[in-house]
């Protein structure tokens, strides 16, 4: 029979603090969908990329890469939704402008 190695039961690894920028990015991303659309989007993207730089540095200075990524993803989703919304508004005005122009004032 082979003996199993004796591994320590409780290994105390040093944990990194969560990045404040990553938390701000996540909160700003959520606020961008609810209360502050434009400001939340910009803050989520800027702080998210800064937090990713902080968490992916060697050696890492903080944890929270997932929070930063979530903030960045929410920020870009908001940018896409804003662009689609603006295209819809422009299409609306173009359609009704053309409709009024072709009606000939009747």
Overall pLDDT, averaged?
89
Biggest β-sheet: count, sense, barrel?
A: none
Q: What is the strand tally? A: 0
Number of domains in the coordinates?
A: 1
Please count the helical segments.
Answer: 3
Shape: elongated
Question: What features would you describe in this structure?
Answer:
By secondary structure, the protein is an all-alpha fold. The protein has one domain (20-103). 69% of the residues lie in helices and 0% in strands. It is built from 3 helices and no strands. The protein has helices at 20-34, 37-55, 65-103. Helix 1 packs parallel to helix 3 and helix 2 (37-55) runs antiparallel to helix 3 (65-103). It is elongated. The model has no long low-confidence stretch (mean pLDDT 89).
Topology readout:
Blueprint: H1 20-34, H2 37-55, H3 65-103
Summarize the structure.
The chain has 106 residues and is an all-alpha fold.
Short key terms for the protein model shown above:
single chain; 106 residues; 3 helices; mainly alpha
